[in-house]
Design brief:
The protein is about 35% helix and about 20% strand. It is an alpha+beta fold. It has 2 domains: about 230 residues, Sandwich (Jelly Rolls), CATH 2.60.120; about 110 residues, Enolase-like, domain 1 (2-Layer Sandwich). The strands form 4 sheets. A 6-stranded antiparallel β-sheet has the order 1-7-4-9-3-2. Strands 6-5-8 form a 3-stranded antiparallel β-sheet, with no helix packed on it. The protein has a 3-stranded antiparallel β-sheet with strand order 11-12-13, with no helix packed on it. A hairpin with a 6-residue loop joins strand 11 and strand 12. It is globular and about 70 Å long. The protein starts with a helix and ends with a strand. The protein binds fe (ii) ion. The site of fe (ii) ion (FE2) has 5 residues, from loops.
């Protein structure tokens, strides 16, 4: 039995064990999403009382208990000293619950369901000594919509939002890079010093949705709070490699590349990988040689040529490889070379080939 099978078996066993202990939830949310569309559009956030099914809360708490008993589940790179611990939340194996949640969030926030991508799914446990009033922040670019689902919530803890202040989107990969881009007077704690925020006391069973990358926000009096945070976008971005549907797409893409002839490939659609986090140009200490590197979430970085970058820039969603070739004005004689570049980018994870 391969290691992969062992891992799958243990996950399935865990799902079965969980199913035996608790009532399996049929869905995450229990509200009519259409009835919140106007409020979300007007305010950029919505607090929905009793919007989460009790069965889902029970399941999420059981998952947390399981993670806390197993240090290997702990996302050590996410440990913020005296702030919070994070665990990657696993939906049951078939991801039907996650798909349902994505559809509901898409409706409330006016995103096209077939474009919605999960950029984050973390349980966060705030430390007992968590700072009671940390500076506000904006989530990374890919976290357009933030969804907070409390699992344990101290009465004094609240999410604070500044919906009427700057709505400029954080275009960086992290909230830290966004923060580092400001001079001291422009830091949120200075700009927002005299602004009264909106405070939302979101209890267990409630859910809050807000524009995570656009609205300044933070949790106050967070000590001992536990929340499941789900983050979504409609830009097909999966910078932490946490969207299971994108994982399936990547596997299918690799299988397509392995079995398809060049002629087959021409009839496939290409998509810039949702997991291609960035392309960076930098200068090495080897005579300051200029290099272009691509970074795919969860995978090794790889070198790109200028023509690879031009190709990435040219790809439009759903466009066939044949059309790409024509758009680039590449003569038939050079098609094999072009297809080789497509294959290389596909194998490295820079693009996905969709059949
Ligand atoms: Fe945030």
């Amino acid at each position: 039995m391969s290691l992969e099978n062992v891992v799958c078996d243990s996950r399935e066993t865990r799902d079965l064990r969980l199913a035996g202990r608790i009532n399996a939830p049929a869905k995450v949310f229990d509200f009519d999403p259409m009835s919140y569309v106007a409020e979300f559009r007007a305010k950029g956030y919505v607090h929905i009382k009793d919007g989460v099914t009790p069965e889902f809360i029970e399941m999420a708490k059981a998952r947390l208990e399981e993670y806390q008993g197993d240090r290997s589940q702990f996302l050590s790179e996410w440990e913020f000293k005296n702030k919070k611990q994070q665990y990657l939340f696993e939906f049951p194996e078939n991801n039907r619950l996650l798909r349902g949640a994505m559809d509901t969030v898409a409706t409330v926030t006016d995103m096209a369901p077939d474009r919605v991508t999960t950029s984050e799914r973390h349980i966060k446990v705030y430390a007992p000594k968590a700072h009671p009033n940390p500076p506000a922040h904006k989530d990374r670019f890919a976290s357009k919509i933030a969804v907070g689902i409390p699992l344990f919530m101290p009465a004094e803890s609240a999410v604070v939002l500044y919906p009427d202040q700057s709505r400029e989107v954080n275009g960086f990969d992290s909230s830290e890079d966004w923060r580092n881009s400001f001079a001291t007077p422009d830091l949120p704690e200075n700009v927002l010093k005299n602004v009264e925020p909106t405070k939302l006391y979101v209890d267990v069973g409630d859910v809050v949705l807000f524009l995570g990358s656009a609205i300044y926000h933070e949790r106050i009096n967070g000590a001992n709070a536990v929340l499941l945070y789900l983050k979504f976008n409609d830009m097909r971005l999966d910078p932490l490699a946490e969207d299971p549907f994108i994982a399936t797409q990547r596997q299918a893409s690799l299988a397509n590349l392995a079995r398809m002839t060049d002629r087959d490939l021409l009839d496939c659609a290409a998509e810039v990988s949702p997991r291609l986090v960035r392309v960076s140009r930098h200068y090495t200490r080897n005579d300051w040689r200029e290099v272009l590197m691509g970074q795919v979430a969860g995978e090794k970085s790889f070198q790109l040529s200028e023509s690879d970058l031009a190709l990435l820039n040219r790809i439009r969603n759903g466009q066939k490889v044949r059309e790409l070739l024509a758009d680039a004005g590449i003569p038939d004689a050079n098609a094999p070379e072009f297809l080789q570049a497509i294959r290389r980018l596909g194998e490295r994870g820079g693009i996905d080939i969709l059949s």
